[in-house]
Amino acid sequence: MGKDGSSNAMWGGRFSAGPDAIMEAINASIGYDKRLSDQDIAGSKAHAAMLAAQGIITQADAEAITDGLSRVKAEIDAGEFQFSAALEDIHMNVEARLRELIGAAAGRLHTARSRNDQVATDFRLWVRDQCDAAMQGLEALQRALLDQAEAGADWVMPGFTHLQTAQPVTWGHHMMAYVEMFARDASRFRDARARMNECPLGAAALAGTGFAIDRHATAAALGFDKPMDNSLDAVSDRDFALEFLSSAAICSVHLSRLSEELVIWSSAQFRFVTLSDRFSTGSSIMPQKKNPDAAELIRAKIGRVTGALVALLTVMKGLPLAYSKDMQEDKEQVFDAADTLMLALAAMTGMISDLTANRASLEAAASAGFSTATDLADWLVREAGLPFRDAHHVTGALVAKAEAQGVDLPDLTLDEMQAVHGDITDDVFGVLGVHKSVASRTSYGGTAPAQVRARITDWRERLS
Ligand code: ARG
After folding, report:
1. Whose CA is nearest to atom 12 of ligand 1?
2. Architecture of the CATH domain 369-463
3. Using alpha carbons only, what angle is made at residue 346 by residues 343 and 347, rounded to the nearest 5 degrees?
4. Is 341 exposed, middle or buried, given 0-12, 13-18 or 19+ CB atoms closer than 10 A?
5. Is the CB of 89 under 6 A from ligand 1?
């Protein structure tokens, strides 16, 4: 290339910039890893304090470094910091500014440390915070679902399999199914957080260091349970990010499934729910429309989260120990996935809190589609002593009869029923209503309002 840095005939192509600029563009991470500035500065302060306590640097230098780092943080917080791509990443940007502010002492900060253990520490701290944020977001969503469940603990609605009416269930039961799903999500973040809470700092480049550092002190200062036990593992591990992403991906899938239900339920064909104006939009051409955009966008955005998991798994899968620059590609995926997840959780919480369930539509739909056919079959087993297979067959004949007459099961007369099976008595009408159906399902975890209320009480206690 020419000394002016102009495009080179061999590799220039569409790049008007010279190789230095191309290298900077592919190499620099400051454009995104500036989000790690708080963690980077906290890690550096812990490291400097430990170096001084161990007599590796003087107390005066440690104080100068700590004060200088506070000033750097203030500049970043105020939006006054000049980030430089030439300085590659957040670590070198902070250190370079520290040198401008405090002079030579800044050069002692990197004693017994490498960017490899530094970035591993910063990123763990960041992901750890995101686990906490996800757990908080999930708890808020669970509370919104609990409120909905409580309000409609005994409201009947169709329960579906294959999206075909199966048996009546309660609205409260349906809401509580999601409380369970989001509880498992929260526990995955909790597990991931507990496992990632070990400190890589002091692993240095990969082999540890000859300086008499105290890794237990820095680990404790940063809120970690202990230092990581193997320096090679410490700088090359990104399991914590993968576990965060897989927890986020599963959680996102749950959010997407609930979104899908909201889209279906809010349609004119279902009218099970009315979404608030705050989480819907109108159409620019069709005045009657109210679109469930927030639900649709949550459903769509989860691709970014599941995509991030696959992307980082792919980054990591071929890497020999220990650090490789490939690992710099961990951050954008995790940042985007975390942002997407937090936004989706907030939007879903808002939608659920604001949602109006239409009790009458739910109940009308619950009775349609012969939803109490199983109750009839169960009655034939219990009261008429039929084997379940025979009861299933008799019920099928009764459903066909009702369907042919265009009526629901409870609308058949006793005579019409007895024409199909002589042992049927008047008593059968006692199980055919949707309310009786749900009230009878009292097995643990079943849809009976009594069961649903018991689970709501359990969860209120657990979340308090
Ligand atoms: N920006 C780098 C990253 O995110 C920091 C570590 C650089 N280490 C190195 N040996 N070049 O991975």
Report:
1. 328
2. Orthogonal Bundle (1.10)
3. 85
4. buried
5. yes
Domain extents in the chain: 21-108, 117-151+158-364, 369-463
**C-alpha–C-alpha distance, residues 405 and 101, integer Å:** 88
Superfamily of domain 117-151+158-364 in CATH is Fumarase/aspartase (Central domain) (1.20.200.10)
Q: Is the Cβ atom of 29 under 6 angstroms away from ligand 1?
A: yes
Chain segment 337-374, per-residue pLDDT in tens? 999 999 999 999 999 999 999 999 999 999 888 888 98
d(CA 128, CA 123): 8
* Of the candidates 117, 47, 33, the residue with the CA atom closest to the CA atom of residue 323: 117
Nearest-CA residue for atom 4 of ligand 1: 328
H or E stretch at 357 = strand 356-357
d(CA 313, CA 212): 36
Cβ neighbours around 458 below 10 Å, total: 12
Backbone angles phi, psi at 165, to 5 degrees: -55, 125
For 259-268, what is each residue's pLDDT tens digit?
999 999 999 9
This prediction's pTM: 0.92
Which residues are CB-contacts of 38 (< 8 A; sequence separation ≥ 6)?
Answer: 73
Q: How much distance in Å is there from the Cα of 115 to the middle of ligand 1?
A: 6
- What kind of fold does domain 21-108 have according to CATH? Fumarase C; Chain B, domain 1 (1.10.275)
How many angstroms separate the CA atoms of 92 and 19, rounded?
Answer: 21
Which token pair is 132? 């906490």
Q: Which residues are catalytic?
A: 162, 283
Q: Which of 27, 88, 325 to mutate to test the pocket of ligand 1 (most atoms within 8 A of CB)?
A: 325
- How many Å apart are CA 431 and CA 408, to the nearest integer? 14
> Tell me, what amino acid is at 376?
L
